Every structure is written in C-alpha cells, then in structure tokens.
C-alpha cells in the first residue's frame, strides 16, 4: 500500500521544519523530521561514549535506536530510550555531529527503512536533505527550500535570542556554512534538489508566503 508523500528538502535553517509543520497540520498528514533521526544517532553515540569517527560502531547504534516520536501542540517530542530528548537534540554541537555521521554510507543505509516506515495513512510530509532524491523518489510532490547562508544564520540567531538563549551570530554562520559543505559534498545522498522538485528561495519571503506558494503548487498538481 502506498500513501501520499510530500518531500521538503533543503539546507539547514531554510525554514523546512516550520513549513513541514504547517503543511502537516493543514493536510492532517504525519510528519517525518529526518534530521532528528541523524541527530538522535549522534546523541546516542555521545551518551554511550562511542567515538563518532568509528563508522561501524555509529551505524550499529543507528540500526537499533529505540526511539518514538510523539505529536505535541508545538511539534513532535522525541523520546530516546524512554527519555524526552527533544531539547538536547537541538544544540549546535549535536547538529555538527549529526552532519559528520550523516556522511557515513553505512549510517545512511541503516536509517533508510526507518524513514520509509513513516509513510502511512493518510499521508506524510517528509523533511530533510535526501527525501525526494533517495528516501521517497516516487513522492507525489517535491519541494526544495533554500535561502542564503546569511539569511539562514540571522533567522537562527533571532530564534535563539527570542528563546532567551545565548547566541553568537558569527559562530552560527560558520556552523551553517560548514554543514552546507558537509551536506552538499558527501559522496552518498548529497544535498541536491530532485530533478522534479519545485525550487523556492525563501531569502526574502516570510513563512506564510512560502506556505502559500507550496499549497498553490500542490493544488496545481491535482
Ligand atoms: O535538519 P537538521 O539540521 O536537524 O539535520 C541535522 C543534520 O543531519 C544535517 O546537517 C545533515 O547533515 C543531516 N541530515 C541528512 N539527511 C537528512 C536529514 C539530515 O544528512 N535527510
């Protein structure tokens, strides 16, 4: 049985998460935040004191992750080994570690079926880097959402300030640029738009305009 899948790919901080959440609510679809799965692999390796340079040990951890995603009002809570780790996943440190382990072919392979299993009734919004190219190549609609690195860094900086967290703009920009390089440069499933994806540059667009553009595109496909 196949269910409708809409893929939202793009670099860090382009607004994929917010867009995916809005679309999931609008259509009543499930949500796959595939970045959270790579972050979980990195966090689990850290908690188990496993060296993230050891590809096969990290792949083994990823294969057997004990994880659940529970819908909440503001998104999805991530439960690892029975503990809510939603906050610990979001640090820059874990983001960078996730980007490192995401370049390992055996880690990506270990996570393919787990990601595909999210496609279920009545449909799925899948957010990531390779949703449209590798995980769901037959998706019903594919979006590639991007924005300039500086725009993305500014948004991240503002989010952290609003949340009352400390933030260093130059460090955030450097991390975003490094992750772009890692994601676009890796040999397996590099960050790239699928041939049949709709490209949206959100540098000068608000999230409502982005969402409206996507909804109009989806309606045009019917
Ligand atoms: O999207 P997020 O920033 O949470 O992803 C963390 C890292 O996981 C990314 O920098 C990227 O390296 C990796 N990732 C990936 N493929 C995906 C989703 C995330 O390689 N589908």
From TrEMBL:
<dbReference type="Pfam" id="PF02224">
    <property type="entry name" value="Cytidylate_kin"/>
</dbReference>
<keyword id="KW-0808">Transferase</keyword>
<feature type="binding site">
    <location>
        <begin position="10"/>
        <end position="18"/>
    </location>
    <ligand>
        <name>ATP</name>
    </ligand>
</feature>
<dbReference type="GO" id="GO:0016301">
    <property type="term" value="F:kinase activity"/>
</dbReference>
<feature type="domain" description="Cytidylate kinase">
    <location>
        <begin position="6"/>
        <end position="218"/>
    </location>
</feature>
<keyword id="KW-0418">Kinase</keyword>
<keyword id="KW-0963">Cytoplasm</keyword>
<dbReference type="InterPro" id="IPR027417">
    <property type="entry name" value="P-loop_NTPase"/>
</dbReference>
<dbReference type="InterPro" id="IPR011994">
    <property type="entry name" value="Cytidylate_kinase_dom"/>
</dbReference>
<keyword id="KW-0547">Nucleotide-binding</keyword>
<dbReference type="InterPro" id="IPR003136">
    <property type="entry name" value="Cytidylate_kin"/>
</dbReference>
<comment type="similarity">
    <text>Belongs to the cytidylate kinase family. Type 1 subfamily.</text>
</comment>
<protein>
    <recommendedName>
        <fullName>Cytidylate kinase</fullName>
        <ecNumber>2.7.4.25</ecNumber>
    </recommendedName>
</protein>
<keyword id="KW-0067">ATP-binding</keyword>
